[in-house]
Amino acid sequence: MSHDPNTLRFYEMEAAKYTSRGVEPSRAWIELFLSQLQPHAPILELGCGGGQDSEFMLAKGFDVRPTDGTPEIASEAEKRLGIPVATLLFGDLDAQGAYDGIWANACLLHIPRAELPDIFARIHAALKAGGIFYASFKAGETEGRDEFDRYYNYPSESWLRDIYAKLDWSAISIEAQSGSGYDNKPTEWLHVLATKRS
User: Fold this and answer.
1) What Å distances lie between residue 163 and 38, 52, 160, CA to CA?
2) Which of 20, 37, 171, 177 is 20 to 30 A distant from 12 in Cα terms?
3) Residue 80 burial class via C-beta count within 10 angstroms: exposed 0-12, middle 13-18, buried 19 and up
């Protein structure tokens, strides 16, 4: 099971509020991600939330497939984007060599630690050779829950590198950056870009 029931329940119950809070797209990271792809490249977005990142990438002319793990969130994103948004749990990803890029902003941080290697393997398999994978995580030292009872894997940089190292990437970069989240609390984030070996 690649999801936590309490976390999914939070997003089901808070879908309208969560997706309508005016979050801006992660422009700097999206631009860096897109700069490594060919124009119009096929991109899978996991955990699209309100759809702001997919909207930004679509406006740049990329072939984006937005998905989210809860039907309620997917429905809200569809209203914004005007295109289908599939409901996809991470553990159900079974594509093979289909995407030049996979974008997973602030969503894989909810995967139980023991299941993260399997999800990364699924993402790696879904990428074409030379494909780019972006993900972001709330940094920490041990898994836990926030005030909304959402599960987080809270990885350290070294722990995360060990997980990535189990697969064949030609490059992995991890950058720490201060920010915040839905709870508006100061948060240390880890932003990861990985390139599948050609």
Assistant:
1) 28, 28, 5
2) 177
3) middle
* C-alpha–C-alpha distance, residues 146 and 184, integer Å: 12
- How far is the C-alpha of 39 from the C-alpha of 13, rounded, in Å? 37
Provide, for the chain, the percentages of residues in helix, strand and coil under a 3-state DSSP scheme, each rounded to the nearest 5: 35, 30, 35
Question: In the chain, what are the domains?
Answer: 5-196 (3.40.50.150)
Residue 44 has pLDDT above 80, yes or no: yes
Hey, is 119 helix, strand or coil?
Answer: helix
Distance CA 10, CA 69 (A): 12
For 103-116, write each residue's pLDDT tens digit: 999 999 999 999 99
**Which of the 8 DSSP states describes residue 180?**
-
Question: Per residue in 114-138, pLDDT tens?
Answer: 999 999 999 999 999 999 999 999 9
